[in-house]
Automatic annotation (TrEMBL):
Keyword RNA-binding: no
InterPro entries tied to this protein: ADH-like_C (IPR013149), ADH-like_N (IPR013154), ER (IPR020843), GroES-like_sf (IPR011032), NAD(P)-bd_dom_sf (IPR036291), Quin_OxRdtase/zeta-crystal_CS (IPR002364)
This protein's name: Zinc-binding dehydrogenase
Domain Enoyl reductase (ER), chain residue ranges per copy: 15-362
Gene3D superfamilies attached to this UniProt entry: Medium-chain alcohol dehydrogenases, catalytic domain, NAD(P)-binding Rossmann-like Domain
Domain of life: Bacteria
Organism: Marinobacter aromaticivorans
Keywords: NADP, Oxidoreductase
Amino acid sequence: MIPNTMKAMVLTGHGDLDKLQYKEVPTPSPAHGEVLVQVTATAKNNTDRKAREGLYPTKKGETTSFQMGGKPTLIFPRIQGADIAGRVVDVGAGVDRSRIGERGLLDFNIYADSRRDINLTPDYYGHGADGGYAEYVAVPSDQFHAVPNADLDDAQLAAMGMCSYQTAMHMLTSARITAGERVLVTGASGGVGTALIQLCRIMGAVPYALSTMDKAAALTELGAESVLDRADMDSFVERVKTQTGGKPFDAVMDLVGGEMTDRFIDAMIFDMNTRETYPRLSIAGASGGNVSEILWTRIYLYQVQIFGVSHGTREEAEQLVDWIRSGQLKPVLHGAFPLSELHQAERYFMNRGSNYLGKIVIVPDSQWEEHGKPWSLERNP
């Protein structure tokens, strides 16, 4: 029986955590071409906080969420949560009822058209439409991909969600990363960073991680060639030379921004005679600051290619799901919180302590015993 109402964490406007309210709301019904998913786990992403706080400006001084399609799509009230795992419990018209019972993972994008190779006006579930911080969600049937792997818990599957992995893949494909290339991964301990390390290895590239040294062993085990300490950026280029045998990075996957971006460029251009390709910088985050001061002469004289990355394409999502099904990608799950404790999860997420690596997932309270409790983190009010 599908209830008429459900529990959800509802975002009521831009602002602090008080704008997130746990309440009873109507259960959605699947429209034509959609499936109704009973949510078992949804991974947290930094975009949840940034959208809530209005930190996606496209003009100076702006406080808003992004609207590349020309008009705002984050309309309140909104249920956030992009990386959704769960089970199909109902289908809309045009969808085969044999899909009921299917366990799967959502391709989180709201695509503007049917193109498979490009996504020019990215939006996503949890932003332009309701997402997974609820007991149920209605999503396009062709974007809810079956992942029956018995060795993956639902919480682990959510931790492999497209918001992180597809962003990571699009960073690499935009920069045309090839086998054997040396790639610096910044923000390496987060969801996109850990995805980048794994994807580099699948593609045959060699990932170097920038992180704190308490994460070094875990990042090395995940696939990082070596870990560079982000606490000491003054000697960064010299330490890069030591780790790479004196060779510059072929490309940088930048999730940090701020004043560090200039240092990352340094690490690609210190010996142009040894390079075989142009220096490439993919940017998909700005955790270290939204403004970087860079001399444009450094960009054009050294021919640094810069790629701004937001989300990805249908083709990339389908490739990632294939790699998940085949076991080539592994979950990096830090722990779980119940949906009713999303405020605590947000605070925990923003105050990352020692040994924080990978993803936090949010599990509906009604699903907690089965899908959340095995991954429970110690929680403080």
